[in-house]
Design a protein that fits this description.
By secondary structure, the protein is an alpha+beta fold. Helices cover about 55% and strands about 15% of the residues.
Length: about 110
């Protein structure tokens, strides 16, 4: 049976981080700090989620607070479809983790 897309442990960590402030724009470096992922893991995941319509992205050309000397950076946030997917995947992951944890405790 093929694996559902966006169900990796890395995706779950990213979803959990994004869902905490679902309407907030997040930049990659902040997500690296929040998730502990390496950039080579995080950015391809962000790109796939954006390509699939679960994240919207935009360029922040002025930096936070209107500082025009700041380097432009890409910002990301969940779309409504992304919020629904994240909640569904996190619930499925929690259910699966709970059932496997209780199954191993019974052994």
């Amino acid at each position: 049976m093929p694996r559902l897309p966006h169900t990796s442990k890395q995706a779950m960590v990213l979803f959990w981080s994004l869902v905490q402030n679902a309407d907030t724009w997040h930049h990659g470096y902040g997500l690296i700090q929040a998730t502990g992922m390496k950039s080579g893991t995080l950015y391809p995941l962000l790109i796939r989620l954006a390509d699939d319509g679960f994240l919207e992205s935009r360029w922040d050309l002025e930096g936070e607070g209107g500082d025009r000397s700041a380097k432009p950076r890409r910002l990301y946030r969940l779309t409504s479809a992304g919020k629904a997917l994240a909640q569904e995947r996190l619930a499925r992951f929690a259910e699966k983790s709970g059932s496997s944890a209780s199954g191993s405790a019974a052994c």
